[in-house]
From TrEMBL:
The keyword Membrane applies. Pfam families: DUF6220 (PF19728). Keywords: Membrane, Transmembrane, Transmembrane helix. This is Uncharacterized protein. The keyword Membrane applies. The chain crosses the membrane at residues 35-60, 72-89, 101-124, 130-150. Residues 1-20 are annotated as: Disordered. InterPro entries: DUF6220 (IPR046192). Residues 1-16 have a biased composition (Basic and acidic residues).
Amino acid sequence: MMKQGEGHGKDMKQEDQASTGSAEELTRGVRIIRWVFVCFATIFTVCITIQIFFAGLAVFVSPTDWMRHMMFAHWFSALPLIMLILSFVGRLPRKIRLQSLGVFGLMYAVYFTANITAISPLAAAVHPVIGVWLFCMSITILTQTARLAFNNPD
């Protein structure tokens, strides 16, 4: 019986080898790009966490903290685009490239839902759900790419 998460690393390694030929064929530049991707993924994950914290401050402490929540998003909104580009340059597995594309799309969805409140409050209610989804996806991308960058599939 397999434990939860067991075998996942092997699948990522096989997919990585399929997209690059083999682990030994990765150039030094590709390995560096993967490390850079991990750094950006880490920063993005931390930023999403801070963003959720700012939302909590605004809801539970003071509504004046909404401005902090709104302005902070502008500081990291370009990260998903950078990560998407790096996922191709770093020859990351297709799964991670698609997840990076998903995060990029969700960033636009989160902006859209934040600004549609006057027109459709119900649609705007999806905004925090997207935030949680972004957090979950950022953790997933970070753990998968860190595993590849450390060349430790298990």
